[in-house]
């Protein structure tokens, strides 16, 4: 081939390449570490208790009483947080049973403080509501309070690979075709998915009050027949919890501007009552449904299986706080500051340093819990043996 022809081909090739956009191979995305699933994975810093807490006599006395009440249950449970082992609590509980004198001395002698991660805390509040109800359905009292259904089961879906089956199997049911499917959500249950199965243990008069009682997880029914029926958490349908207050804020419905509703439980209830159709659809965004059982004796009971006490019991994520552990809160809501005992959990209480403070029953409890939204710092109190072990790591 003549040189001139070769040069023409080379020039043409150069022009072709120059006119093209060369797309570089995309760089591999950075590999992010998986989120910490326990306090031990997140990291803990330990320090002596003395000098860090302004522990009042009242706080110490109520905390010690709740701690002692928790001990039988603590000693039967595995600590999911990875911070303690059973012998840590055996020593602390033995000391609590024989302690006399200053209650604050018990905590100073037997515990050290631990900050989980940054320690940046967020706390809400819950209470034991009392709403109107009845044992048997009657006009004006027709919202069913359901017991735990026997077809609610935990099972891995058949089409889920073995490699993805980690943690606890999901909740669901077996449908008419024999397939494992998610359990009925709130809208389906409200429309009668469980009707006619004899699961009703009582009825409530007001669907809005019943919705918020479900969020609290326990409460009282002031019965039309006379007396009070206490109901407690028996289980949940496995559907995700959606906080409708957050949805309302995103929609601009809650806030301090003219035309907005107060950002509290009372403000949310006001909106739902003034806008019943939109309010019903708003509540149905929370697909979670709580099943109940009748409680007799002392209560209400937390998930630890012991009664929760006003201004002493706190709900936690047990992956980050051991059940039964004392918790010290220092928040921008001073009424929630001080010592609490981890005795409960909840569907919305997830992650490190997330707490839900218990305020008992009655109008003051409703007001405080409904408006509780506190931020600040949290310290977990760990038995000395656990704190020493963590310090050596």
How would you describe this structure to a colleague?
This protein is of the alpha+beta class. The protein has two domains: 39-125 and 303-391, RlpA-like domain (Barwin-like endoglucanases); 130-159 and 168-295, Ribosomal Protein L25, Chain P (Beta Barrel). It contains twelve helices and 17 strands. The chain has helices at residues 3-19, 39-42, 57-74, 86-98, 103-110, 186-190, 207-216, 244-250, 265-274, 276-284, 363-371, 384-391, and strands at 44-48, 111-116, 120-128, 130-134, 143-146, 153-154, 171-174, 180-181, 200-204, 218-223, 228-236, 290-295, 313-315, 326-331, 338-344, 354-361, 373-383. It has a six-stranded mixed beta barrel with strand order 3-16-13-15-14-17, surrounded by four helices. Helix 3 packs across helix 4 (86-98), helix 3 (57-74) packs across helix 5 (103-110) and helix 9 crosses helix 10.
């Amino acid at each position: 081939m003549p040189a001139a022809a070769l040069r023409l081909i080379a020039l043409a090739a150069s022009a072709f390449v120059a006119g093209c956009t060369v797309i570089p191979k995309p760089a591999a995305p950075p590999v992010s570490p998986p989120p910490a699933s326990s306090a031990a994975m997140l990291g803990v810093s330990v320090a002596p208790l003395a000098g860090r807490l302004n522990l009042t006599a009242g706080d110490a006395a109520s905390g010690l009483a709740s701690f002692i009440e928790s001990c039988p249950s603590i000693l039967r449970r595995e600590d999911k947080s990875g911070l303690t082992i059973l012998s840590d609590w055996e020593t602390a509980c033995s000391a609590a049973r024989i302690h006399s004198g200053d209650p604050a001395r018990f905590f100073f002698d037997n515990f050290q403080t631990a900050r989980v991660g940054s320690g940046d805390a967020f706390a809400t509040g819950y209470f034991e509501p009392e709403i109107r109800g009845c044992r048997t359905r009657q006009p004006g009292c027709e919202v069913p309070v359901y017991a735990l259904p026997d077809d609610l089961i935990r099972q891995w879906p058949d089409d889920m690979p073995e490699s993805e089956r980690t943690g606890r199997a999901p909740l669901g049911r077996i449908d008419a075709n024999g397939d494992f499917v998610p359990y009925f959500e709130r809208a389906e249950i409200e429309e009668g998915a469980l009707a006619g199965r004899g699961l009703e243990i009582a009825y409530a008069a007001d669907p809005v009050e019943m919705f918020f009682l479900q969020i609290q997880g326990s409460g009282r029914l002031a019965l039309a027949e006379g007396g009070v029926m206490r109901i407690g958490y028996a289980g949940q349908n496995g559907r995700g919890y959606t906080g409708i207050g957050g949805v309302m804020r995103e929609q601009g419905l809650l806030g301090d501007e003219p035309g907005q509703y107060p950002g509290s439980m009372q403000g949310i209830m006001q909106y739902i009552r003034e806008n019943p159709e939109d309010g019903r659809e708003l509540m149905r965004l929370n697909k979670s449904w709580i099943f109940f059982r009748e409680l007799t004796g002392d209560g209400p009971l937390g998930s630890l299986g012991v009664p929760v006490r006003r201004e002493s019991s706190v709900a936690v994520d047990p992956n980050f706080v051991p059940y039964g552990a004392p918790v010290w809160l220092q928040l921008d809501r001073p009424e929630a500051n001080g010592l609490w005992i981890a005795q409960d959990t909840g569907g919305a209480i997830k992650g490190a340093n997330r707490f839900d403070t218990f305020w008992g029953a009655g109008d003051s409890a409703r007001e405080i819990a409904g408006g509780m939204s506190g931020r600040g710092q949290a310290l977990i109190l760990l038995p000395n043996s656990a704190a020493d072990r963590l310090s050596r790591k």
